[in-house]
Specification:
Layout (H helix, E strand, L loop, with lengths): L6 E5 L3 H13 L3 E6 L2 H11 L3 E5 L7 H9 L5 E6 L4 H10 L3 E4 L4 H11 L4
Parallel strand pairs: 1-2, 1-3, 3-4, 4-5
Length: 124
């Protein structure tokens, strides 16, 4: 079970992906504080709104997801899940080294995201 009143920023340059992830999070009781269409917006929204969770695409315009992780992680304590269609383990490792909490492959299944979030908040 997830803690109550969690808030998230969802960042992806694909409107379909943003909506898909937002629907999953909403179904889990997580409020979507903001949607971001690129990496710069993602960083700005996180710093402005101070959400509990950032779910971000890896490849986005203006600022890559790995840079979003680095910039957000150094400024606040937040759970960060990177979603990507790229299966490059080296890039996944770099994301984790920069401070991502988890990396998931697109398309993200509701069960995978729920399992990931539950483990991040330490619930069985």
């Amino acid at each position: 079970m997830l803690p109550p009143n969690l808030r998230a920023v969802v960042a992806d340059d694909s409107a379909v992906s943003r909506y898909h992830v937002g629907q999953i999070l909403g179904g889990l009781g997580i409020e979507i504080a903001a949607y971001a269409r690129d990496g710069v917006e993602a960083v700005q929204q996180c710093l402005k709104l101070r959400p509990d969770l950032l779910v971000s695409d890896l490849v986005m315009p203006k600022l890559m997801g790995i840079d979003v992780v680095r910039l957000v992680r150094t400024r606040m304590d937040i759970k960060i899940v990177i979603i990507t269609s790229h299966c490059d383990q080296t890039m996944h490792n770099r994301c984790m080294a920069m401070g991502a909490s988890q990396v998931l492959i697109k398309p993200v299944a509701e069960s995978d995201l729920k399992k990931t979030l539950t483990s991040l908040w330490g619930s069985p």
